[in-house]
Structure formats: C-alpha cells, structure tokens
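Duplicate of #3305? Posting structure anyway:
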C-alpha cells in the first residue's frame, strides 16, 4: 500500500511539474506576442508622425535636380501632359463606403529630364459585374499642373508574420508590374496620388490622412494580461495542491 501511495505521489508530482512547464511556456509566448504588438505600435506611431509632418508641408516642385531625393508621402507639384492612351484601373478601392476603382494615368512631364510618372487620378464607381467593361474618363488634354502626394508601389509579396508568411492579397494594391503591362518604358520610382489639378479631372479624389497607430497597443496589453492571468492561476493551483 505504501508503495502504491508513493507511485501515485510521484505521478502527481510529475504531472504538476509538466503542467507548470506548459504554463511557463504559455506565459513566455504571451509576453513575446505582447512585445511583438508593442513593436508594431511603435513603428506605426513613428510612421504616423513622419507622414503627418510630410503632409503638412507645401508641395515641392518636382525637378530634374531633386527627383532622386524625394521620398514617399512628400507633397509635389509638376507640369506636363497626360498620355491619353496609357491608363489602368485597380479594383478593390473604397470611397465613402462604396466599392470602386482607382484610375492611374501616365503623365509626361514638361521637363523631359524627368521620366514619365504615373498619376493616381482618383476613384470611380465600379460596374455591378467584375467582368464588365470599364469606361475610364479621359484625363485633361494639353498642358496641366498637378499636385499630390508621392506614394510607393505595393508589390504582392508574402505578408510577414511572427511565425510564418502568407501571400498578401492583390485587392486594393497598386503594383508597378501591372502598370508595366501598359507602358514598359522607364518611369518615376514612385507614383503620385493626385490632390489638385489645373484641368478637369472627372474623378473623385479621396483625401489622404496618416494611418494612425491602430489597435496594436491594446493587443500588447491584452497579451500581457493573459500572461499575468496564467501565472496567477498556476500559483493559485500550486497553493491548492500543497494544502491537500
């Protein structure tokens, strides 16, 4: 009987140790996930500050001397003409809670030392059927001056996560590869999200605002609370085991 009681005690002790080890691993995982979300919060905060600063400045005239120094989110202005035959629509964009298309048109700067640049002229309502032919409003003809915000092309790559990567969705993205199917020549390294134009644009122009910090700080706090709850629960169970 004493031998059986000893064996049961050893099993109970090993089971308690295994459960403690699992709880410890879960605590470490929750803490790690919390810091991961906090890092994302800090990155989003820094990005929001930088974008807000860039958007608050007056547009810079795009010239052949400064074109290599301009970066995304800077406001620029440029004069030239639209290429009437080079346009492309991108599906999956919303404006005022309505599904539609974003229209990009190739712009030829008056200063020929600046390569052609794609202009996101704005949004248009989508047809009911995704396969329906899209009639794109023609861009203004002749010499026009446009101003907008430089944006970086979005390539469809794997979305990086903490443990694995998944293919990023194509919907709503504006990628350079799709535009090269329309015009294969050299173009400016960023495109311009139009904000103002001296010509009749005929498209809805959505305002640009900083992305904000998102829910990452709240998620970080939640993960740390989960870690504290697991630790507290395990400590309470250990005290209960010792008292029995």
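Output from current build:
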């Amino acid at each position: 009987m004493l031998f059986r009681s000893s064996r049961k005690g050893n099993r109970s002790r090993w089971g308690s140790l295994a459960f403690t080890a699992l709880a410890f691993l879960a605590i470490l995982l929750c803490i790690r996930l919390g810091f991961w979300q906090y890092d994302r919060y800090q990155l989003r905060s820094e990005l929001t500050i930088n974008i807000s600063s860039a958007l608050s400045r007056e547009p810079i005239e795009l010239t052949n001397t400064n074109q290599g120094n301009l970066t995304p989110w800077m406001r620029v202005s440029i004069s030239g003409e639209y290429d009437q035959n080079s346009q492309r629509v991108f599906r999956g964009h919303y404006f005022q809670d309505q599904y539609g298309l974003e229209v990009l048109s190739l712009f030829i700067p008056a200063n020929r030392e600046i390569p052609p640049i794609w202009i996101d002229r704005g949004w248009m309502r989508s047809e009911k059927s995704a396969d329906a032919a899209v009639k794109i409003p023609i861009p203004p003809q002749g010499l026009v001056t446009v101003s907008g915000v430089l944006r970086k092309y979005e390539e469809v790559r794997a979305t990086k996560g903490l443990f694995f990567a998944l293919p990023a969705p194509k919907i709503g993205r504006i990628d350079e590869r799709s535009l090269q199917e329309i015009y294969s020549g050299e173009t400016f390294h960023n495109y311009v999200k139009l904000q103002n134009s001296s010509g009749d644009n005929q498209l809805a122009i959505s305002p640009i605002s900083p992305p904000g910090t998102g829910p990452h700080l709240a998620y970080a706090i939640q993960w740390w609370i989960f870690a504290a709850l697991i630790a507290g629960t395990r400590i309470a169970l250990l005290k209960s085991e010792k008292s029995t």
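Confirmed duplicate; merging threads. The beta strands are 60-61, 75-95, 98-109, 117-125, 144-151, 158-160, 165-167, 191-197. Confidence is low (pLDDT under 50) at residues 158-168.
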